[in-house]
Amino acid sequence: MRIRVINPNTTAAMTAVIEESAKAVAAPGTIVEGITPAMGPVSIESHYDEALSVPGLLAEIAQGEAEGVDGYVIACFGDPGLDAARELARGPVIGIAEAAMQFASHLGRGFSVVTTLSRTAGRAADLAERYGMQRFCLGIHGCEIPVLELEDPKARRVIADACRDAVHSDNSDAIVLGCAGMADLCEYLTAEVGVPVIDGVAAATLQVQSLITMGLRKSGRGEFARPLPKQYTGLLSDFSITEEVRS
Ligand code: 5HY
């Protein structure tokens, strides 16, 4: 099977971190391809960034469909464009926030989310509500490290401290990493903090792989059926839906 793991921001170094995390859990025979869109923000830290990441993401979903890709991971904690991607794709599409929260909910009474900037906490809270995870999500904490500064060696200590503080202040049993760029810190943070730390990239990859293994695809009827044929104009003209495609 082929799983396309799409980083909705356009920083290739972050895509490499994401791809490595996905490949680490993929089964033999599962091809994982990390994708950096051709257009979009270099990092996603606001609603504006998130909105403008969606066209580039959807272009990669459309390309995957043309190539017969079996399923997709949206590797950004805001799960941008998830519903639109599900309309375009025949196979499963899973966001890392959705997958990480679901995995964490199996591990204790509740989890804390530790993310980059506090300004993104509202989006994470909205997603917890949408996914029915409110009763498990005991707190959402920013460590005020911009997405593109996660590579700084000092960042991991700041994040570890934020995780420890979150576990104590929320009395939580697990940590959900609130950024795809933290995927390579999962092992270190698990050792430092002493509770399960969930990387949504690995979790989403395993969920997509499991659904495909079970022969399950996105439902072709109703809300997530393929979009109706429609012309788009201007810079979006390439996104026109030209024909009905059997899902
Ligand atoms: C992410 N931004 O996973 C989110 C994390 C965040 O560029 N990739 C990004 O800070 O919301």
Description:
With 247 residues, the protein is an alpha/beta fold. It has 2 domains: 2-95 and 203-239, Rossmann fold (3-Layer(aba) Sandwich), CATH 3.40.50; 97-199, Rossmann fold, CATH 3.40.50. Helices cover 41% and strands 14% of the residues. It is built from 8 helices and 8 strands; from the N terminus they run βαβαβαβαβαβαβαβα. It has helices at residues 12-25, 47-67, 82-88, 96-104, 121-130, 153-170, 186-193, 200-213; strands at residues 2-6, 31-35, 71-74, 93-95, 111-115, 137-142, 174-177, 197-198. The strands form 2 sheets. A 4-stranded parallel beta sheet has the order 2-1-3-4, with helices on both faces. Strands 6-5-7-8 form a 4-stranded parallel beta sheet, with helices on both faces. Helix 7 (186-193) links the parallel strand 7 and strand 8. The protein is globular and about 55 Å long. The protein binds [(4R)-2,5-dioxoimidazolidin-4-yl]acetic acid (5HY). The site of [(4R)-2,5-dioxoimidazolidin-4-yl]acetic acid has 15 residues, from loops.
**β-strand amount:** 5-15%
Please give the number of β-strands. 8
CATH topology label of the largest domain: Rossmann fold
Distance from N terminus to C terminus (CA atoms, Å) equals 18 Å
| Ions and ligands | [(4R)-2,5-dioxoimidazolidin-4-yl]acetic acid
Integer tally of domains: 2
Sheet with the most strands, sense and barrel status:
4 strands, parallel
Q: Tell me what the CATH architecture of the largest domain is.
A: 3-Layer(aba) Sandwich
CATH class of the largest domain: Alpha Beta
The structure class reads alpha/beta
Overall outline:
globular
SSE sequence, one letter per element: EHEHEHEHEHEHEHEH
- Determine the mean pLDDT: 96
